[in-house]
Amino acid sequence: QWTAEEKAAIASVWAQVDVEADGQETLARVLIVFPWTQRYFSTFGDLSSAAAISSNPKVRAHGQKVLSALAGAVHHLDNIKHTLAKLSELHADTLHVDPQNFQLLGNCLVIVLARKLGAAFTPEVHAAWEKFLAVSCAALSKHYH
Ligand code: ZNH
Question: What is the ipTM of this complex?
Fold first, then answer.
């Protein structure tokens, strides 16, 4: 279901992603912009201000973990559902994360990428990336009943 252009766009953006720095910024934005998401991270220590969130080492480590997991989807575009199946189970059955949060994270990632890539984040690249995130969010939401 991917065109050659979409595949190329997703790969070229991913080649410029720094999973640690961009993961940190993405997760920090989720926690700052949508503060109710903080409730899932009660073990992460101080999340009391934007500055605290942005310098929190657990936020950084977890952002990296999340983007590294997305890398699996990037590298298996034709099999995203299967690639993210175990994580879907974990978020549904164990972590009880409301699947709407996956979209919030996707939106923040798009903002991080757009800011980082500037003019290179063309509408076509943006479209391919939105599609990739929609498919990934759907895969992560698969195991919720
Ligand atoms: Zn999540 C965890 C991925 C989103 C919440 N995650 C996790 C992990 C991973 C992930 C890989 C690890 C696992 C293990 O350890 O085994 N996520 C992910 C992805 C995404 C996500 C890929 C998208 C895209 N999450 C999310 C959100 C939220 C979450 C949005 C909320 C808001 N997670 C979570 C939690 C956890 C996780 C809470 C656990 C943490 C700890 O404990 O450390």
Answer: 0.97
